[in-house]
Specification:
By secondary structure, this protein is α+β, with helices and mostly antiparallel strands. It is about 15% helix and about 40% strand. Strands 1, 2, 3, 4, 5, 6, 7, 8, 9, 10 and 11 form an eleven-stranded mixed beta sheet that branches. It is globular and about 50 Å long.
């Protein structure tokens, strides 16, 4: 077995689980679908994806009809994804919307903010709100909550990096590589059940350890469900 996956919910149509950092979210070697197949004996179909180095909640379809319905929700905005991230630095505003044009270089597996539309360039939009900032070794770290409106490759990482607030642990996009990895969590997902239409919402616990624990120590009024 690759590793034991925490399953939050499952029925005949969908499976909701916590993806560990280090596993690929789509089918292939060292992937979450492979681990789920070994653990549950079920074939799963990805409704969305997470970067390999990122952890948090994911939902998989267990049949093609459910996969198609979840895909439709992704396209029409009914599928809502929220994240928590720890940034190096402090955003210029306490909340706001970032809108950029992104180009993903497949050869380098890296995305870039660009000024002009051209082949391969896609619009990227997210909302964020600043939850807290702390001093860590003479440098500011900030906890932000993020809602994605589009799902571009490395979108959160590159949009915050472009504003001089890279994610903690994200050496690829201007932060420092840290042994704890990239401080980005798929924190909350909500969507309509593909069979009965019931609205479902799942919220993850905040990770233990650095850098997350800095905010629990200095913000005792935080609950684990921000």
């Amino acid at each position: 077995m690759v590793c034991l996956i925490e399953i939050l919910y499952s029925d005949k149509d969908i499976l909701v689980c916590i993806k560990p950092a280090g596993l690929v979210s789509e089918a292939g070697e060292n992937s979450l679908p492979a681990a789920l197949k070994e653990q549950t004996e079920a074939d799963v179909y990805a409704a969305h994806r997470l970067d390999t180095g990122v952890s948090g909640e994911m939902v998989y379809a267990l049949n093609k009809r459910a996969a198609a319905q979840l895909s439709t929700q992704m396209q029409n905005g009914a599928f809502v994804k929220q994240y928590l991230a720890v940034l190096r630095g402090v955003p210029s505003e306490a909340s706001g919307t970032y809108t950029d044009m992104l180009f993903h270089d497949r050869r380098r597996n890296k995305s870039f903010v660009v000024d002009k539309a051209r082949a391969g360039v896609k619009k990227a939009v997210l909302d964020y709100s600043l939850k807290a900032s702390v001093d860590y070794g003479g440098n500011a770290l900030s906890l932000v909550q993020i809602r994605l409106h589009t799902g571009r490759t490395h979108q959160i990482r590159v949009q915050f990096s472009a504003r001089k607030t890279p994610l903690y642990g994200d050496g690829k996009y201007g932060g420092r590589t840290e042994k704890q990895g990239i401080a980005l969590l798929s924190y909350s997902i909500s969507f309509n059940h593909p069979q009965n239409g019931k609205r479902l919402e799942f919220t993850a616990d905040i990770p233990q350890g650095l850098p997350w624990e800095l905010f629990w120590q200095t913000q005792p009024d935080f609950s684990k469900k921000i």
